[in-house]
Amino acid sequence: MLNTWEAAYFDLSRERLLGLAERAGRAGIELLVVDDGWYGHRDDTTSGLGDWYPNEHKLGGSLDELIAEIASRGLAFGI
Question: Membrane spanning segments where (predicted)?
Fold first, then answer.
């Protein structure tokens, strides 16, 4: 499992996540877990919690599209 927190903190983007997935797959990792920062306007620890709507601007599209792209690289997806 690769958790994105230490690799990206709040600095998530589709390109960064797909790059992590690509490298994780080559290393034999089977699961990519996207940690804090994928939803709402959560860009730092002073932002509120509880807005569980995906930030499509940050993710470069819908969460379903991102999950499909991660799966196409052979990894399961979690949040």
Answer: none
Res 18: pLDDT: 97
pTM over cut 0.85 = yes
Question: What would the two tokens of residue 19 be?
Answer: 């790059």
**pLDDT tens digits, residue range 12-26?**
999 999 999 999 999
How many other CB atoms are found less than 10 A from the CB of residue 24?
Answer: 21
Integer CA distances (angstroms), 31 to 14, 40, 42, 47, 78, in order: 16, 23, 23, 27, 7
Q: Please, how many CA atoms are within 13 Å of residue 44, restricted to the half-sphere of its CB?
A: 1
**Residue matched to tokens 């196409």:** 72
